[in-house]
Specification:
single chain, alpha/beta, 50% helix
Length: 452
């Protein structure tokens, strides 16, 4: 399931430090009507291809383990054409985004999947109000359940073997529950991750740099790695009921066929993520813990990662989380953590999207300091990355920072044009006009030229 607590960090809420009792801002954009919502054209998200030996280990850990650590005894998948229906309080953007996703499954993963208006389907997508969804699963933004066809069935069979993925022999029915009253991007992100899990992997791995199957929620849409995993899931070499060992024996030749470029080079050693580290990160991201306890937990995750000599996503995410938790508490520690996270993520092309998330935090400091040139340099590097990875919320926020930087530099006409362009993306990324204007005010409040 897509986690709310992690999404709160990845979604860039409270993006920068604010002085206590800050004076009100002025000259914030006052357009009476926001421009039309913008959305991304159908595109294939390109990510770096890793060695097949490394991908094979990822496949096995994704397919044969639950997020809780419970083993999955056998491979399961749908057989034959897969139908998808939509029910519930369906918002206007859901069906177009779903059609685009199914098109990608067909083209990139080779899965025979289609939408249907029939009363039953292999996969049901049900949209329900967020409040109702979270009464059932408080920390989930969305989730997928096997062997049910609607919300009433789920409530009837909760906490029974009926909805236990580890008891499946094959997949026949599943329902994805998404919130109906949130931003279009959040709904789209839920569709990508949860339908992919309905089809294939049941686990998330913090070590993955290039996948939505990572609880850091950095990637918003399915990547080429994810599509390769799903293509392998539905390859003729595999079948329902195969054990981990049987799949492991087939994977080298299978991946060589599907991904010949991955035969070049060797996989990097990737030790498993310890339960202690996961517990520390979950505590750091939990709103139920005290601020002090959360900061301590994030620091513990950093130290554990250093002890294990981890680099890449786990190192960067622990630093990123620690920096976010120090915002408003210790500005120097926060900024240092963000800079360290940026260095960790810059070691690999596979984590360039991660650097774009950190860029928002770094730009907040340079903008607050009145350094328009440095702010512009930071966001100009990150904006194309956010666009390439179809993250409208991140893209809009970076463009708002760019507008403020241009204003600081006396380039008011350019600032106005960039700010106006950001609003169309913000409507997709943040949803309501209230949320869009709140983000505008939040970024504008960091501009020292606007504080009187």
């Amino acid at each position: 399931m897509r986690k709310l607590a992690v999404a709160a960090i990845a979604a860039l809420s409270a993006c920068a430090p604010m002085p206590q009792n800050a004076p009100p801002t002025r000259n914030v954009v006052q357009e009476d009507t926001l421009p039309p919502m913008r959305s991304f054209a159908a595109a294939r998200v390109i990510t770096a291809t890793r060695a097949n030996s490394e991908i094979a280990q990822d496949f096995l850990d994704l397919a044969f383990r639950m997020e809780s650590g419970r083993p999955v005894p056998r491979l399961t998948r749908f057989e034959g054409p897969i139908s998808v229906r939509v029910i519930g309080d369906v918002p206007g953007t859901l069906v177009p985004d779903l059609r685009g996703l199914l098109s990608r499954f067909r083209a990139e993963a080779g899965i025979d999947i289609f939408m249907t208006g029939a009363g039953a389907a292999s996969i049901t997508v049900q949209a329900i109000p967020r409040e109702e969804l979270q009464r059932a699963v408080p920390r989930a933004a969305c989730f997928v359940v096997p062997r049910v066809s609607n919300w009433d069935e789920y409530k009837a069979f909760r906490r029974t073997p009926q909805v236990d993925w580890t008891t499946l022999e094959r997949r026949d029915r599943a329902t994805v529950f998404v919130p109906s009253d949130v931003a279009p991007q959040e709904i789209r992100d839920c569709l990508h991750e949860e339908i992919a899990q309905a089809l294939g992997p049941l686990n998330d791995l913090y070590r993955l740099p290039d996948s939505v199957f990572n609880d850091d929620n950095i990637h918003a849409v399915l990547t080429s790695f994810d599509m390769l995993v799903l293509r392998a899931y539905y390859a003729p070499e595999l079948r329902n009921g195969m054990t981990r060992g049987e799949v492991a024996a087939r994977l080298p030749a299978l991946l060589a066929r599907l991904n010949p470029s991955g035969e070049i080079g060797y996989g990097r050693p990737m030790n498993d993520t310890s339960r202690d580290w996961i517990d520390a990160i979950e505590t750091a991201l939990s709103p139920g813990a005290s601020p002090t306890r959360r900061r301590q937990a994030a620091e513990q995750a950093i130290n554990l990662g250093r002890a294990f000599n981890w680099h890449g996503t786990r190192e960067g995410f622990a630093l990123f989380a620690y920096g976010r938790l120090q915002v408003g508490n210790d500005a120097n520690l926060a900024r240092g953590a963000f800079q360290a996270a940026d260095r960790a993520y810059r070691r690999s092309y596979e984590t360039r999207l991660h650097t774009a998330h950190v860029a928002v935090q770094l730009a907040a400091y340079t903008l607050s300091a009145g350094d328009g040139n440095r702010t512009l340099a930071i966001v100009d590097e990150a904006i194309p990355i956010a666009r390439d990875h179809e993250n409208a919320a991140l893209l809009a926020t970076l463009m708002m920072f760019k507008a403020e930087a241009l204003d600081l530099m006396g380039r008011a006409d350019e600032a106005r044009a960039v700010r106006l362009d950001s609003l169309g993306w913000a409507r997709y990324g943040f949803g309501s006009e209230r949320n869009v204007r709140a983000r505008l005010r939040e970024v504008a409040s960091l501009n020292p030229g606007r504080r009187s």
